[in-house]
Amino acid sequence: MSQANAWAHGQTAGPSRIVLGVTGGIAAYKSAIIARLLMKAGHDVRIVPTESALQMVGSSTFAALTGHPIHTSVFDDPMGVEHVRIGDEADLLIIAPASANTIAKLAWGMADNLLTATALVATCPILVVPAMHTQMWNNPATQANVATLRERGMVVLEPATGRLTGADSGVGRLPEPEHITQAALGLLSPQDLAGQRFVISAGGTREPIDPVRFLGNRSTGRFGIALALAAAHRGASVDLVACNVDAALLPHHPTITIHEAGSARELQAHMVRLADGAQVVIMTAAVADFRPATATESKLKKDGTVPEFDLVENPDILHGLASDRDHGAYVVGFAAETGDEHGSVLDYGRAKAKKKGADLLVVNRVGETSGFGDVETAITILDRFGEIRAEAGGSKSQMAGVVINTIISSRTGD
Description:
- The chain is α/β, with parallel strands linked by helices.
- The chain has 14 helices and 19 strands.
């Protein structure tokens, strides 16, 4: 069955059906990014634009992006009563950007297009993301309409502050697509981790050779960040220890606290301190096995000789956390593995699971097109005895959900 016909038959291509409403405004182009991020997280997205929105972004773009037909009027499919069907089957309705005009229509219960009619029918959570000029946002009429929507249970995000159209700047800018996606995923997620604290490391450690060079690895931190967001969306508070992670990748979530670390010893200090009293500790960061015994104070010069380094072994942070259980946390480790002529990825993963002693070990298959970076990944989750608890493949956001579910089921014995 095609994705375009999935809604009509009560099926979805992903875990949740999301309706993304798009209204007229210069920020309408960002709705395509929001749709892509939601689809990357595994959800089925249907875009319902207003006629004004189609003046900004063409219907062919939305259709090609989601695989669903684009309609703007309740008369496009009168026999199918489309606004009733779409609104009734939706698990979440997002309106981003939401113009002052559409917000007013929602507050007054108007239904003069497919989007507003769908909103009247929908019984699912509704996320409204305003975007407009500063004066329009601050106008008492808009503020009263927003207050009305919130009183009725809709979630209305505050607009961001920044560059608007032309030379104007101020409050009214659409929040970044990543922030909107995080809010949306939080509304879809069960709050089964409320009251629990997770400590998660992400990225890769760097061991200085001189002020310029270091020993490191290719880890970007994306998997650790996906895990932090997955736990936070389900109600947990998260301490995220970010090792040399690009600032643009770091999450902006009210229950995620970020701690920065550079070297393996800095990471160890953070993890040991934060593990105390946590319910779950996840060591996702890739730790350099060795470090130079000393780092030079000035940059090494190329003078025709090859410098020699004395290397010393870094602490095994995961093994230490798994061995010392005074902190009381459930410990999960990660192992990036490749197979070779001596054994498979699973062989090496099982050996490491038994050696490390963590409650779970996520074996992450890495290579040129998988594992590190913004690519899909394949994982096998082992217990401390090397037995398989789960296997899956897909985006890092999807795999983060698999890991969190496996942690929950393993802790509760399900």
